[in-house]
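Progress against Task 2.4 (sequence-to-structure conversion) is shown through the following example record, which the project officer requested during the mid-term review.
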Amino acid sequence: MNAHVSQGGWPVLVLNADFRPLSYYPLSLWSWQDAVKAVFLERVNIVANYEHAVHSPSFEMQLPSVVSLKSFVKPTTHPAFTRFNVFLRDRFTCQYCTSQEDLTFDHIVPRSRGGQTTWDNVVAACSPCNLRKGNMTMTQARMHPRQMPFAPTVHQLHRNGRLFPPNYLHDSWLDYLYWDTELDP
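Structure tokens generated for the chain above:
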């Protein structure tokens, strides 16, 4: 392989067999090395290529920019409860003041009062709001979230993920993604 192709360069968009991205946020990307390996293992089809190629003494291959899985992977219907997914559900916004800085978890019913760390009891909150609410209830603190917490579907998380396009979108990916690229600087 040519040394001029950087290890981190040439990301490959991975589509399911129905030509939809496996995920939007984070965007389903593989390294070019993983994509080339999947091509040789006959697990993916190449949909589009970069203009760049890799070579060995007896072989040359254009680097794929978009691949699709040969077998459909059924998307999960119940997303995992993670800090990232809570922030994504809440659009990376404090549910009390709408700040997007220094986000934390806030338990609607404080843990000190028996509140659980679950979809239905946790919202994104900036540190100042979280500290202000402390271990009080919403009523005691007079702080009510703009959106009450809920267990999102994968579809809802994907829809929210589309609001946050990545910094890098290769032209060959745009037919498979559904962001308003006119808004990009």
